[in-house]
Structure formats: structure tokens, C-alpha cells
């Protein structure tokens, strides 16, 4: 079991290192076109071949990985922050506010996931109109996925806070005159941190998956920039004749998701085998 | 029980109203309107168009207007597909999505539960490890990765199955497998964990000690109890699968309704988005109701339709 966690760590670390190194690994820029090399198969010069415009696929995968990872980590951070605030408020204060907030969560659950994310992307795209293209799309994606994902975290946090609220140590803190907000921040939240951390670890691969799907259907990053999803989408068009163009982006996504899932499982086992996120 | 089901179905009406209202509000919150794509329209034509689709009143007026139509069962005209009603468009697209979704759902449920049971009941054997690894890969593969793999393998490589279009049952095999892969893997993970937990319970040991045959122990005691937790996942899943997936429909050129959740938003075709969303929400409500009824059947302690003691 331990080995699996390390394999996950190694996969994630490798992909993150490639994403960070970017152009420096191959010496090709991700947007440098060389039409003589268009659609070239993998070779010594271009390890993973070139795309339809003669751009080095390896360099594009590194660049795409950077985008995918940044979006996923940003979306997860936002989802956890929002979910913690929303869920803690709902569970701690309870009463009318709790039922109101939870009805809000129910509504989001009754809407199709795709619709929610697509709507949010459009809203954030428009709200960020003045920002340069890549950053605008990156931020819009991260915000949309973060907002779409926070409801799950909120439900989890609420359930945990409700449980913790009845514990003896909360009563003890209250009896000694600790302020309610201080009990929540100093005592309750640290005690529910482990399951939330595990949930967060599984939100990262979920966000990578959603981002790649959104980019695949053309709602994410636009050329000349790329993410793993846009690369797979490009590769899909040429799949019949140039399978390497679809194979490598798909392999990158698969490795990233596998790595994060293995890491999440290891974390869950470490923090308590009975946790189910 | 029938009264309970009817009561729940009636309770769906306020839910659908809230969904319609929220979606209506969210859509109008989006920048741009249905008629400012492609080219700029002369103001006169634009005014006429807006009058034609009753977009010239205040937002409150339009909302009341929409609800009034909706209460008569009229989903309104599409803005993008001129001359067609939303109900008409959805009716045309629904069969492909429903058939594909139903097949994928059946595949995901039977495969997921079967694999999960097979793995969980043989904890830490080679079979268990193989299934655990397989389902881990399964939950790590986006649908377009699975779709690309299946097309490369069975469509283009071996040439056994058609890799696109929608012209007969054979055309549904690859898309249904693609659609089913991730939920099947996830259901297998869930079932495996549940089964492994139930196998350690005292009542299972008791049943074995009393000499109940192993097959019967698994069917009557293990599976029944393990399924209770897995079932909650199947309700929303059914609704999601039946309303189609844009990715799978695009990859395999299936004329389903999944794409409307995306294209209708980018086209600002408000009635079409609302129509598709209401269909989805109604399916969520129905599927959750079905899950609750199944719950009562699986666990006789749960009695639906009676007051809690």
C-alpha cells in the first residue's frame, strides 16, 4: 500500500517538474512553428513529434501541464476556502440560516454540472474583460470550477461541524467562557481538518478532469496557449492518420489523474482509514 | 406506497419552479443577448425580433410570461433554430440520449456492482488487486481518453465496430462503453469498500457459523447491506447519463441532447437552456425517488410513506 502512495507522488512530481521546466527541457518554444516539421512523427529531434503547425508536442505538453495544474490547484483552493466558510457557517450557526444555505446547495445539485460550469465561465470571462487573454481564461476556469466544486466541500464541512458541535470538548470550551467564534476557529475547524484535507486532495484530480473536458469542448484555453484538454482536442481531429497527437496528451492526463488519485488514497489511509470523501 | 410516490412527484413541482427561476436569473445575468452574434442587426429588425420573442418587456414581465407558458406545458420557441419549438428540438434529440444513457447506466450498475462485489469479497487476493487497479485507472480517465482509446482500438485498428454516427444498435456500443467507463469504475470502488466493510460485520460471521451457504450469505447479507450506500450514487448518475454528454456526443457524432447544455448557453438560446435544464431536474427528482423506493425494498427497516416512530 505504501508503494502506491510513492508511485503517485513520483508521477505528480515528475509532471509538475516538466510543467515548471517547460521550454527548457527540449529547447523548443511551445509556440514556435516549423512548417517543415508539421505532423512529424516522434523522432530524435522531436521526442513526441509535432502538431499540424510544426510545434513541438513535448514543449506544448509541458506548457499545457502548467495551465492544467495551475487551474486545478487554484480551483481546489477556492473550493476548499469557500466550502469551509459556507459549511462552517451553516453547521455552526444552524437554525434558519442553515436550512437556507443548504437549500441553496440543493439547488446547485439539481442543476446539471456542465451547465453550472459553462454559465460561470461566461460570467467570469465577461467580468475579467480587461485582463490579457491567457490570464483571463485561466482565472475564469479556476473560478468557475472552484465555485462549481465548493458545494460538495460545504456539505462535508457542515456535516463534520454538526457532529463536532455536540462533542464534550466544545461544551467544555463554552463552559469556560470561550467566545463561540473562537471555539469554531481554534477548536472545531482544526478537528475537522483531516477529512477536509482528504476531500481537497481528491478535488485536484476532479478539477484537472473538468478542465480538460471543458478545454476539449472548446470552452477553456485558446491557441496559441494550450492545456492538456485542448491538445487532446487538436489530436482528436487528426487521430486517424496521426495517432501520436492524441496518444500523448491523453497519456499525460491519465498519468496526472492516476498520480493524484494514488496520492489522495495514501493521504486518506494515513489520516484515518475510515474516512470516505 | 403509491400515495407516497405520488406525494413525492407532486413535491417536485416547487423544485422545478426553483430550478427554472434560478436558471432564468443566471442566464439573464450573462453578458450579451441572443441576437448579437455574427453580424450587427439594424435596430429596426432587432426590435422586431425582440417583440416576436417577447424579449421587449421588463425582465419581471418576461419571467411571468415564461412561467405562464411553462404551466401550460409550453417550453417556448428556440431563438437559434428559427421556427422550431424547444419541446420539438428536445423530442428529436431525446431518443438517442435516452437509449445511450440507459445502456451506459445498465452497464455501469451491473459492471460496477459485479466487479466491486468480486473484489471486496476476496480481499487482498490477486483478483481484488487487479480490480482495484483497473477501477483506479477507470476513475482517472476522462471520457475523451476512453473514447479515443476505444476508437483507435476497435474502430480504426480492428475495424470491428463503427466509430461514429447513429444508425443502429451496433453504433451505440462504443459510445455506451465510453459513457459507462468512469461511473462503472467509481461504482466498483464504492461497492468494493462497502463489501469489504460488511464482510467484517458480526452478522455475516453469525450467518456463516450457522452454516448458511456462502453464495446465500453474499447475496442476502453482504450485497444487500453494501448496496444501500452505493445506491445514493446511482440516482443523480441516472439523470446525468440520460440527458447525454456533450463530449461523447461530439466524439461519436451522436445526435443527442447533451450538446444543448453547452451550445444553447453560448448561443444565449434562453428557452432551450431552460427546457434542457428542466428535463434534467425532473429526471434527478424521479431518479432520486426511484432510489428511495429501492432503498425501502432493500432494507425492510425503512418504511416509506409512514411517519417516523
Describe, in plain words, how this protein is organized in 3D.
The complex is a heterodimer of chains A (277) and B (309). Chain A is mainly alpha-helical and 277 residues long. Chain A is built from eleven helices and no strands. Chain A has helices at 2-21, 23-26, 57-93, 95-110, 113-127, 133-165, 168-175, 180-191, 193-216, 228-237, 244-271. Chain A starts with a helix and ends in a 6-residue tail after the last helix. Chain B has 309 residues and is mainly alpha-helical. Chain B is 72% helix and 0% strand. Chain B has helices at 2-29, 43-52, 59-71, 86-120, 126-139, 143-157, 173-199, 202-209, 214-242, 246-252, 260-266, 270-298.
Architecture blueprint of SSEs:
The complex is a heterodimer of chains A (277) and B (309).
Chain A: H1 2-21, H2 23-26, H3 57-93, H4 95-110, H5 113-127, H6 133-165, H7 168-175, H8 180-191, H9 193-216, H10 228-237, H11 244-271
Chain B: H1 2-29, H2 43-52, H3 59-71, H4 86-120, H5 126-139, H6 143-157, H7 173-199, H8 202-209, H9 214-242, H10 246-252, H11 260-266, H12 270-298
Give me the count of strands of chain B: 0
Helical segment count of chain A: 11
Content-based structural category of chain A: mainly alpha
Determine the strand fraction of chain B and express it as a percent band. under 5%
| Mean pLDDT, all residues of chain B | 85
Inertia-based shape of chain A: elongated
Largest pleated sheet of chain B: none
Provide a quick synopsis of the model:
The complex is a heterodimer of chains A (277) and B (309). Chain A is mostly helical. Chain A has eleven helices and no strands.
Q: Notable features of this structure?
A:
heterodimer, A: 277 residues, mainly alpha, 11 helices, elongated, B: 309 residues, globular
